[in-house]
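Model it.
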Amino acid sequence: MAFEREKENAAAAAIEFVEDGMTVGLGTGSTAKFFVEMLAEEIADGLMVKGVPTSEETRRLAESLGVPLLPIEHVDRIQLTVDGADEVNDDAQLIKGGGAALLREKIIANASDLMVVIADPSKVVDVLGAFPLPVEVTPFGYTITAKKVFDALKAAGVSRPKIDVRTSGGNKPLVTDGGNYILDCHCSVIPDPVKAAALLSVVPGVVEHGLFIGLARTVIVGDEDGASVIEH
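Modeled.
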């Protein structure tokens, strides 16, 4: 499959950031899955770390591989979080949430001393927005919230946003781990991610949005032969 080798190489480079005794945030998605699998191998060889999963999917994976986990309620410090991205630009601004885990991902990333993003080259963009921006909203009044999200994106300079409610089986709205819905906002281009993030954050009914601004300090992009590590 395309980019599998690049994802593996990015994950392998991120393992180098893990130190004995750390509490590590475990990301969600296909690239983060490689990291969790590699971390499990290191643990089997004697590495002493504990993980904090960003989704139920990741929790199940980590448990199946024997990675010791901490409930978020018992965490007082997360030294490192390694997670993927749906898009990342040159300023280490991200779109995340393709796996519907953006709320927990952002809570854990924000609580971490260091967030390392691992990605294959297809995720690196000049301008954010080709990937639909996920916005997590409360089920109550979500149609009204969607209109306000549309207005916020227009005010942030997105010329023609189109908003869909993400669905699951039976064409019903997908329900996140937190019991919310996801609005997928097709923007094409988000000219000012900082402004868009600020305007979305104040919309009543918006629980969280998938713009990760100022959270990632290290971006690792895998390639066929290894990985490039970019510090911000």
